User: What shape does this take?
Amino acid sequence: MTLHSLVDRLRKSRGFCHKTDIAGVVASLASRLPNGTRDLAQAVAVGDDCAALRDGNGYLLFAIEGLVSDFVETMPWFAGYSSVMVNVSDVYAMGGRPLAVVDALWSDGLESAAQILAGMAAASNAYGVPVVGGHSNTRSAQAQIAVSIVGRASALLSSFNARPGDSLVMAVDLRGRFEDPYPFWNASVGAPAQRLRDDLELLPQLAEGGLCDAAKDISMAGVLGTALMLLECSGAGARIDLDAIPRPPHVDFERWLSAFPSYGFVLSVRDQHVDEVLARFVQRGLACATIGHVDASREVVLTQQSESALLWSFHDSAFIGAPAGAEQ
Assistant: This one.
C-alpha cells in the first residue's frame, strides 16, 4: 500500500462522499432563502456539530442525525442505539451537555420498529438522556430513523477555532469492536453507564477550563475526514502523521482510518495546554495522542515514515463547503 493510493481510496470512500455532499445541500438551501447564507447565521456558522444559539449566558445546542437506510434495515437495534449515541456525542463535541432527544421513525411493521425503539431506550438509559417525544410511521416501505437533540453549553468547542500552530489531537476509546460489515467501532454497548457519561464529561470540562476551544467528533468520514471538516471551517491546513494515530491492535489500519467510533474526537489545542489535555483523557483509560499540527497552508498533507501525500487542498475544492473562518 502506497500513501498516494491510500489517499485515492479515502477520497472515493463512502464516508468522504457523504461529507462532500453537504456542500451542495447547504448551497441549495441558501440559494432559496431571501438573504442567502445570512439566514443560516447563528453563534457558529453552518458546518459545526450542532447549531449553537446564544441563550442567556450560554448557548442552546441543537442537532439532528439520520442513519443510512441499509444499516437501519440490517441492524435495527444497534441503529436505534446509535441514533441516540451519535447525537449525544455531537453535543459533547461542542462543549455542551445534552438535555433530551426526539425521534422520527419509519418502519415496515411493528416488529422492526420495536427493535429500533429498544435500542434507543438502551442508549437513553446508558447516557442519561431522555427521549421526550417524536413521530412514528410503522406502515412505511422502508425502515428509517432520524433523531434530534437539544443541549446547553456555557463555553463552546467549535470547528471554527483551530489556529496555525495548534496541535491536532485525537482522543478515542479503543476498548471496542467493529460491528461488521459496517465501519462502526462500538465501545459503548455493554460498557458501564457511569464510565460512558464521565468520559464524555471531559469535553465540556476542557471548554469551561479554557484548555481547548476547537473540536469535532469523529464521524462517518473517519479521523482524517473529520480533521478535514475542522480545518476547512477554520480556514487552515495541517500535516498529519499517520504513524501517530492511536489504533487498536490486530485491526486493519486502512479500515481503522475510516472507522466511526462511538467515542472519538479530534481537537485543536494550543501548545501550552497539550500536555494537560492528553493527560485528562489518558487518566480515564482513553487513547489520546498528538497526530499532527495545524498550519496556514489550507492544505492537508499526510506523512508516514519517509513518505508524504496531499490528502486535500481547500484551494482547489471544498470538502463540506463550510464558510472558512466564520466569526462567532
The two ends are 42 Å apart (CA to CA). The first helix runs from residue 3 to 11.
